[in-house]
Amino acid sequence: MEPGYQLIKEQLFFRKELVERVHWLINLRWAVSGVALAAGWIAHFLDLSHPILPLTVLFVVVALSNILFLAIWKRLKSREPQEVKHFVVFAHVQIAFDLVALFCVIYFTGGIYSPLLMFVLFHIILAGILLAPLSCFIYAAFILLAAGALIAFQEFALLPPQPVLFQNVPFPSADRLPDVLALYLTFASGILISTFLITTLKASLRVKGRSLITVSRKLDQSNTKLTALYEMVKEMGACSESQGLIDSATRNAKRIMGVKGCSIKLLDDDRKTLRFCSTHGLSENYTAKGIIDIEKSPVNRKILQGSFFTIGKIQKDDYFQYPEDIRKEGIASMMCLPLKVEKMIFGVFCIYSDIPHYFGPDDVNFFSLMADLTAVAIEDLKRELNKTWFLKKAAHQLRSPLNAIRSMLDLILKGYQGDVAEKQKETLTRCKKRLEILGEVINDLLKLGLERMVAGETAFHPVDVSPILKSVCELHGARASEMGVDMIFHMEDSIPEVMADEKLVDDLFTNLISNAIKYTPSGGKVTVVLAREKENRIRFEIADTGIGIPKSEIPRLFSEFFRAENAKAFSEEGTGLGLVIVKEALDRLKGSITVESTPGEGTCFVCYIPIGKPGNEKR
């Protein structure tokens, strides 16, 4: 597809219009010749006084010439590439030919008094629109000269007079030369005014067209940059470790901004020094010193105070801690912005150019957006990593004492510590049940933390999901029977492999099936379906006739520790983490999930997993 500004350029500067109109002129000439011939002969048979024979010869010549014009147009149209100058010359030839033919017709229909004289304005308008303003004025001059020649021929009897068509002229008849000249001056004024108006209008449209082209070009550039920025944000969002995210930011920033190099420097814990965390396009010599003392670097000190900094032409040595490195690197201009989230500044994002005064106001605004998005991505990942570390650490710390307490309760309940009264036994059993629920929460936390820790490190490979699903269904089938829930299983033959990890797929199936059984009352049923979809993906569907989910709570289903109110009332068991594990597993598999539910009737989860091709992807 052509860029938008190129399409506008073609239209507003009448290039495409010119190519189309030269053919339109040929078609119009056929119509005019035919109608004029027919009208002339009808008038002849009605005994209207006019020279039919010369007019017939004239229109036949026009028709024959039109055949030649058509052949020329087809030849020009077939050429690749089509050169506009050839069509311009062709348009000049046609307009000049038409004016000559029209003035011949005007002479035979009354000369200066012919009602057909007004049709010369048509050629003025056409030349004004399609051709250069000078051409329009040249044609206007030709028309005035031709009209003046007709007056001279009539006044001095150089040509035999012709009867006025229909005896109805556009100007009153005049016998004296001054009156005729007055009529001619009126006609000339009309031609010149029309020429001036049409050329002025076209010039105005050209100016507006150029402005529109400029805006369109900027919009195309902005759209390209925003699309690239969107891809950059997606790439950063898929990163699971800090260094990979920062490297992605510098690599993409250099490419999108079209600069020599890019760097990200982060503050150390003491907030007195900056260190290069990632560079792209810069030499090792430039980053060799590593640590930058903020007190010795006015540029970085100013940025860390919250303002952006641009240098159009680097000259002053006192801007930098190591000015000699700037010169050796060939950096002529630079732009730096703080990396900050809300009011907390934690680093500096810089881009460098080898062209002086390279960065303009638009670059500052766009790079500011890029820096803000990068800062948010870095901070979000940092929070997520801290959260994952805490979950894993806390779960490990809780697991050991919890197992010890459960072992002690088992000893007491089995009577190894002495007889236990019935009420005491009931209380201890309730405590044990609560501890089992807490154990499930800890196990899910460990599972979630582990999956987040290894995300991006696990090598995916082709996995046949059918045996995994059969195994999960067999494992939970016994539990479903105990609860009085009928379990129905449908699986198509020859389900294709997906790029995945067996444990990830097992977690996905296990959590959805166990949830469906858990929240389906006795007498209900759970249906499991595995099928291939048309869009190169497989569909895993789990539907139950259970308690359902209120519509208002569906948007929160995949939030950590969330359980619907009716689910809490139905069963004490549940961690609120199962569906979080499902969603994160599908995200890593580049899949999706939909939920449909009606309270009291049941719920249906549908997962779509793309069919993968073997590769060395890590997710």
- The average pLDDT score comes to 81
DSSP strand content:
5-15%
Low-confidence stretches: 168-174
State the end-to-end CA separation.
35 Å
Structural class: alpha+beta
DSSP strand tally: 13
From the spread of the alpha carbons, the general shape counts as elongated
Question: What is the helix tally?
Answer: 17
In angstroms, what is the radius of gyration?
A: 43 Å
Spatial arrangement of strands, main beta sheet: 3-2-1-6-5-4
- Number of domain units: 3
Order of helices and strands: HHHHHHHHEEHEHEHEEHHEHEEHEEHHEE
**Major sheet details:** 6 strands, antiparallel
Helix content: 55-70%
Structural overview:
The protein is of the alpha+beta class and 619 residues long. The protein folds into 3 domains: 2-214, no CATH class; 239-385, Beta-Lactamase (2-Layer Sandwich); 457-610, Histidine kinase-like ATPase, C-terminal domain (Heat Shock Protein 90), CATH 3.30.565. The protein has 17 helices and 13 strands. The strands form 3 sheets. The protein has a 6-stranded antiparallel sheet, sandwiched between helices. A 5-stranded mixed sheet has the order 8-10-11-13-12, covered by helices on one side. The protein has a two-stranded antiparallel sheet with strand order 7-9. Helix 2 packs antiparallel against helix 3, helix 2 runs parallel beside helix 4 (84-108) and helix 4 runs parallel beside helix 6 (133-155). The two termini are 35 Å apart. The model is unreliable at 168-174 (pLDDT under 50).
